[in-house]
Amino acid sequence: MKHLLITVGLGASGGAESLAGAIAYSVKTHYPDVVHFVVTKKSDSTTLPLVEQMLEEQEVILEKRKIYLTNGEERSFQGVFPKIQDYIKKLRTEDAKAKITVDFTAGTKPMSAGMVLGGCVAGVDSFSYIMNEGEGDKPLRGGETVLSFGEAFAYQVEEMKKLFAFCFDRYDFSSAAEVLIKMGKIINTSSVQGFVEKWQDIVEFYFRWDLFNHPREDFKGIPGIPERNKAFLGKLTNPRFPQRDIYFLADLLNNAQRRIAEKKFDDAVARFYRAVELIAQIKLRAKGIETSNVNTENLPQELRDKYEPLHNDKGKIQLPLYKGYELLSDLGEELGKNFFDDHELRHLLEKRNNSILAHGFNPISEEDCLNLKNKILSMVALLHKNIGQVMEEGKFPDYQEVDNKLQ
């Protein structure tokens, strides 16, 4: 709903009738669903009845409410400001999507100052002032012009949106969520509240996904999410999808890419290490072999004697990364042979083992991280030639792409 808060003074210079005409003009121009007249005891009995009569004559039909200034509050900025601030906040609780305009033309200077600051602090969509086209810059009936001051917080809103986009584009979704919370609390305009409302679900969606807590059916109704991401998740979360393992691998690689963008190279390498392990698992699974519990009956006869002694105290054969690739090599798979021929790859994996997030104390350098990434992408190409296309499907959008879809 549209709301107009407007001060009603006495019109000492131009007379009550002239002022009433200007106020009626502003009301008719803005044509709100509800007009809230800020009145004193005197203006309520002199100017306001004239305003209401003029609106009635012009067949302007709307809901009318009054905000009373008592005990000389109209002469005290400290009296007007908190009353207007509290009134607007209460109005927001009644109608969260209210579009509120404050007109501060009439009344005393403390009234106008209190109206403006109260509107700024509580959050309104625009301010309005009635200008006279005649003499003396006084509002005279028949010579009025309404000046509207756009969205009251346009600069502040744009700066906070830039900060939000910065966080979103760098995958810092927790900080992006904090910016939204602050925007919602500090700038309580309808447009900002709408922005916050639309983006909150999107930020939560990608925040969960970034933690591998993959959204399922609940994501389908969220606007702004690219269709490629929805398609990717639909396949990833479908246990019957035949290439689901490839989508898990692509998701893991994309996650590592995001950590690189954040300059978190140890985090990225931890994911790349898991990707190397997963590549072997996927290749072996295609042959009916699970590295978590190898059934030797699925192995060629000549390999059973080698792997039977690997049963642990739980009666299972569980293959770590290197043993997985050894089995692939024993099976004559190119992936296994290449793994042991690539000394640089194994050297980079050893650096991961010595990193602070594994078993050592050394941080991973950007160079080593990027070299390992390139090695792994070459390995994945042997597993699935279109892995780049799958990764693109699961790539997170930037702020602009989502914003364009929301328009």
Could you give the topology of this structure?
Layout: E1 2-8, H1 16-30, E2 34-39, H2 41-45, H3 47-57, E3 63-68, H4 77-94, E4 99-103, H5 109-122, E5 126-132, E6 144-148, H6 154-169, H7 173-186, H8 190-210, H9 227-236, H10 244-261, H11 265-285, H12 301-307, H13 321-330, H14 334-341, H15 343-353, H16 366-383, H17 387-393, H18 399-406
Parallel strand pairs: 1-2, 1-4, 2-3, 4-5
Antiparallel strand pairs: 5-6
Helix pairs in contact: 1-3, 4-5, 6-7, 7-8, 10-11, 10-17, 11-13, 11-16, 13-14, 15-16
Q: CATH-wise, what's the superfamily of the largest domain?
A: Hypothetical protein VC1899 like domain (Restriction endonuclease-like)
Biggest β-sheet, characterized?
6 strands, mixed
Helical fraction equals 55-70%
User: What's the SSE pattern?
Assistant: EHEHHEHEHEEHHHHHHHHHHHHH
| CATH level 1 class label of the largest domain | Alpha Beta
Q: State the domain count.
A: 2
In the CATH hierarchy, what is the architecture of the largest domain at level 2?
3-Layer(aba) Sandwich
Number of strands: 6
CATH topology of the largest domain: Rossmann fold
Classify the beta-strand content into a percent band: 5-15%
From the alpha-carbon coordinates, what is the Rg to the nearest angstrom?
A: 34 Å
The number of helical runs is 18
